[in-house]
Specification:
Immunoglobulin-like, 2 helices, 3 domains, globular, 462 residues, five-stranded mixed beta sheet, mainly beta, six-stranded mixed beta sheet
Amino acid sequence: MIKWTLNISMFLLMLATAGACKKDAPLPDNLAAFESNSLGISETESSVDLLIRLSRAVENDVSIIVQTTPEGVAYGTQYTTTPAASSGTINVTVPKGEKEAVIRVAKAADALFDGEEKILFKIQSVSDPVLVGTNSELTLSFSEILAEEAEVEVNGGGTEFGNSVYIDLSANRQTPVDRAKWDLGFYSGEDFRVILNYATGMMARALDKNDLNQVTAADTANFDQEMSFSAFSLDALPYIDYPDGDLSKTAIAAISATAAENKVYIINRGTGVGTPAPARGWKKIRVIRNATGGYTLQHADIAATSFSEIQVDKSDTHFFTYTSFENGIVNVAPEKHKWDIAWTFFSNVTSYMGGEIPYTFQDFIIQNRDVQTAMVLTSAVSFENFGEANLAGLTFNAKQNGIGGDWRAGGGPGSAPAVRTDRFYIIKDADGNYYKLKFTGLTKDGERGHPSFEHVLVKKGA
């Protein structure tokens, strides 16, 4: 008995010693770098944000010193920065728990530019424990630029896929937006159509009523089972906007000029960003046309006996005007010609028992309504060798899901997703520029939500 006890004691001591000797693998260096190396501020823009990103969030505030070298432009009289510059130096802070900082450059009121002005921003130093990364310089031009090539890491928000990210290839610019920021998008074209937020798993179902105050919880019996992406039901397909972006196939019917024909809809707002993803709740809504040629959105909680209204005008600058039930009209996608593709969490469909069922998809790529895309297999021509002569004969796709999820493989049960290396894409933007684009990664330092790609200008638009 004593011998057995001693052996157990020795075994436990060995385990303790082994545990004491084992060290966690060191984390890679935390680097500070500009999101891109060149940006332009167009004639119609009053300001632009320069983003400095860290590899990961910091445990304490981190100070970054940025040196500015203006060329043909004067600080104070023609432009200012936030934070303010002092003797050509900007001190910007990344707060504890965060992993990015922003420098805003604003044109001074009434300042005139001829398009040749530039400012070079250079990360001079970073406080411990962060180091200066390789992309430490950015040139800002006071004119629109036409990026000829770039390597892009998409700011998708990490493992929770918190952002939808709108990307302008020619401007070398990305715009991350909290994907749960909006609920409905109102079309600015000739038709009167309303889209659901595709990035939260929203669904909409019409009732045979046209008065919000007559709708109660009794009208929604069993809707939580039928209006759900987890239901895997063929019957759920009509409750989502079809993923190809065809506005004749939205869950909410065209808004009629005859008010009485516009029905009440029950809205499942889907889920927000978090682990676990929080439910965003339910609403009842009704949309009618207003007297100024736009829309009136009526909305309320299911059991409410009164409702709120939001007036939505059609926009000259955007394809859609976006609204939030809590915050009214909100900024989401950039202007209609200021983005080409977007990376986002998405409401997609898949084949099932002879039909289609809705499901949510991470890493989905949508394209703008004025953009066309084509896929090229590397077995036909390599990315490096593809040139302007190869554009002839390509079949372009104008649907929203022209790229969709086909740029990556796997991702189902027991299957880790991976970038497909046998294909790349040609993007034709609204200005007639052709870019070749290939995806290069799904992660950064092993963390999802940081996809990457590179793109090269093939042919400049006329």
